[in-house]
Design goal:
Layout lengths: L1 H13 L20 E3 L3 E6 L6 E7 L4 E4 L4 E4 L16 E4 L2 E4 L13
């Protein structure tokens, strides 16, 4: 019951907020070939018609982010501290100026991701 409540709360929090789409998430509702900005990356919907999933098309380097108009990595202004340049989703954490999966180890210093 607690897990269902946490998932529901996370879904409601993400509604109307920045997308938390990540590699491996289902993209069946979008269709194969669709591009989308994910957590620090440009994603493409690929796979079989039964269970398509988001895959990494381009990993945005430190100091850049995915532009939702052009679906490409663009330089962020003022990277490296101070204000938040990237809001990490519920399954990721800040690592420098980017977000990484929670189970990965960050090898970068403080940045603008939060």
């Amino acid at each position: 019951m607690t897990r269902v409540l946490v998932v529901l709360m996370a879904a409601l929090t993400l509604q109307g907020g920045e997308s938390a789409t990540e590699v491996g998430d289902s993209c069946e509702e979008r269709g194969v070939g669709t591009l989308m900005c994910g957590v620090g990356a440009v994603l493409v919907c690929t796979g079989a018609s039964g269970s398509p999933a988001w895959e990494l098309l381009e990993d945005c380097a430190t100091g850049s982010t995915c532009d939702s108009d052009s679906f490409s990595c663009v330089e962020t202004s003022g990277g490296g501290g101070g204000s938040c340049c990237r809001h990490c989703g519920p399954r990721s954490k800040p690592c420098g100026d980017a977000c990484i999966p929670r189970d990965n180890t960050c090898h970068k210093g403080p940045g603008c991701a939060c």
